[in-house]
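Before the break, one more example. Copy the sequence into your notebook; we will annotate it together after we see the structure.
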Amino acid sequence: MSKGNTKNKTVKEQLLFQIARALNALVTVTNKPSVTINPIVYSYSGTFVNFGASGGAADALGGDTVNWGTELTTASDHLGNLAIMDNCKVSKISVKWSSDVQLSSIIGSSTVTFRFFKCIDINANLLDSNNWILINELNTSWTSGSGAYPGFIEHKVNDDIFYSSGELLAFNASSSSGFSNTGEDVEVGLTLETVSPII
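Here is what the structure looks like once it is written out:
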């Protein structure tokens, strides 16, 4: 009889251990927002107004930041941003050189990198770089070898670029020195997908 009880206890302990391990795995999986089955998709379009800016001409994030659907202005007294109204993740981003001036003729030795930033305080001073967090850098960058009129689309849905409701999004192009003309516009498209909040 005692042997039977010992055996049953062992089986129960193994079962409890397996349940605990499964629950731990569930907690690990749900420790970040999950993709919604039927997400709402938001689309935005914007413009880099001072593309190629660096050094003293750069904005608070060290380059030029997209203006989203706003009147074209200088970068000295503002920073383009989107206020996020639902828990979202970045789905896709497109960037297109829009001038008849060839990029390859003015980029020189410069490299342009594209980056997503986040500000978690909607009441923050956006010209203070300390209020921004770098959260992702695109795989694509532009150099003299990128062609005359480059453009690209990056699918970012698997990169876990999350923004919570009430946070701010900024998309920045940062150039190393050597870019000879910062007066050309570059168009940007962005899609976001809603996600479930952290459990």
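The chain has two domains: 1-31, 35-196. The two ends are 45 Å apart (CA to CA). Try to locate both features in your own notes.
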